[in-house]
Amino acid sequence: MEKSLEESARERRYYVEQARAAFQSQEQEHISESVQEEIAGGNSSLGIRFVIAILLFACFVYCDQEKVTFQGIGAKEVIQQMEWKPFPTEKLEEILTDINISSTKDDNE
């Protein structure tokens, strides 16, 4: 007995739907696993970085209190370097205001 065209089409459609469902469920499982790994990895990394930051700060405070230096550099020099502005913003502001003033004078003429 041969199947009718309608029965064959129904069977193929059912097979395609099963294949799609199988692939979608596998894909969703893979995505959820990777998201969970990222979340877990990100949290542990944050904790490690936080602990390292606390330890560095404690070492800095200890070196400042005990006047410990490393190759002649003490806590005061470290603080000066953190406060030092390598880019002179005041000078840049002066130059920019001079440019704005000169450009408006040229526009008016």
Summarize this structure briefly.
The chain has 109 residues and is mostly helical. It contains 3 helices and no strands. The model has no long low-confidence stretch (mean pLDDT 77).
Please specify the SSE layout and strand pairing.
Layout: H1 5-66, H2 75-83, H3 89-108
What tags apply to this protein structure?
109 residues; mainly alpha; 2 domains; 3 helices
Order of helices and strands: HHH
CA-based gyration radius:
34 Å
How much of the polypeptide forms β-strand, as a percent range? under 5%
Distance between the termini: 98 Å
Number of strands: 0
SS content category: mainly alpha
The outline comes out as elongated
Low-confidence stretches: none
Give the rounded overall mean pLDDT. Answer: 77
Number of helical elements? 3
Q: Quickly count the domains.
A: 2
Outline the biggest β-sheet.
Answer: none
Share of residues in helices = over 70%
Question: Would you write up a description of this structure?
Answer:
The chain has 109 residues and is mostly helical. It is built from three helices and no strands. It is elongated.
